[in-house]
UniProtKB/TrEMBL annotation:
Membrane listed as a keyword: no
Domain Ig-like: 133-218
Highest taxon, organism lineage: Bacteria
Protein keywords: Signal
Descriptive protein name: Ig-like domain-containing protein
Signal sequence coordinates: 1-33
InterPro entries: Ig-like_dom (IPR007110)
Length: 262
């Protein structure tokens, strides 16, 4: 009789232990699942907004990138000498404004919230008003004969300046880029360039830019000699005259000599 009871008792004890072990593993699994679920539901910012330097009248854009579900964006600004954060009305992942002295020194951030109410605040980006590049000498229109070199130049003030020359061909509305990246553009005149409008976009190290006036290129007929100077034979002390006749506008003359043995 005791043997039977002992066997039953052992069986019951084994069952209880098994149940406790199973319950432990089930409980641990549920806890891990809850932890994983909680971790996966967090909002993560993958790209922070960056500080900007912009000249008056130029657009600046702040962007934030985040991972999560049903994300909402709230942009805030801390104005110069203010300790409070003020909400913008913008609700997308980017904020765009036109630069003016109003925004100079502002600190801006974004609060990203998911559908579960979890949120994260971005790093702070600072907005700074800077002087953009200014053109001090505009490119001038040119008239050139076929085969002659012509050069367009621009002079500008600013830091880290870069130059982009563009052309608008006759009958077209779009502008095409040249490969030239210096303050001057030189070409050999041909009918190809006749009537082209050319300008230069000057950009500084902060990305601010200014566009030059438009210069026009015109192909013109060069001067032509219609009567050549004639060789002369003259006695010592006698006057001799050499003449040349040419056609063209604004003509200038330069006479040259080559002495014997030179």
């Amino acid at each position: 009789m005791r043997n039977k009871l002992n066997k039953r008792g052992k069986l019951q004890c084994i069952c209880v232990i098994c149940c406790m072990v199973i319950a432990f593993f089930v409980s641990e699994t549920n806890v891990n699942a809850a932890i994983n679920l909680q971790a996966s539901s967090q909002v993560v910012i993958t790209k922070q907004p960056e500080s900007v330097n912009a000249a008056t009248g130029k657009q600046f854009i702040l962007k934030v990138e985040a991972e999560g579900t049903n994300l909402k964006y709230k942009w805030q600004a801390q104005k110069t000498e203010s300790g409070e954060w003020t909400d913008f009305r913008d609700t997308t992942q980017s904020l765009t404004r036109t630069m003016s002295s109003i925004y100079d020194g502002w600190k801006i951030r974004c609060i990203v919230t998911d559908g579960n109410g979890n949120n994260v605040t971005s790093n702070v980006a600072t907005v700074k008003l800077v002087s953009g590049p200014s053109i001090t000498k505009q490119p001038q229109s040119v008239n050139a004969a076929n085969g002659r070199l012509f050069t367009l130049k621009v002079e500008a003030e600013g830091t880290g300046l870069k130059y982009k020359w563009q052309a608008q061909k006759p009958g077209e509305s779009s502008w095409s880029d040249f490969n030239d990246t210096t303050a001057s553009l030189t070409r050999t005149m041909s009918s190809t360039y006749n009537g082209w409008k050319i300008r230069c976009i000057v950009t500084d190290g902060n990305g601010n830019n200014v566009t030059s006036n438009v210069a026009t290129v015109k192909l013109v007929s060069g001067p032509s000699i219609i009567k050549q100077p004639q060789s002369v034979n003259a006695a010592n002390g006698r006057l001799f005259t050499l003449k040349v006749e040419a056609e063209g506008t604004g003509l200038k003359y330069k006479w040259q000599a080559q002495k014997p043995g030179e």
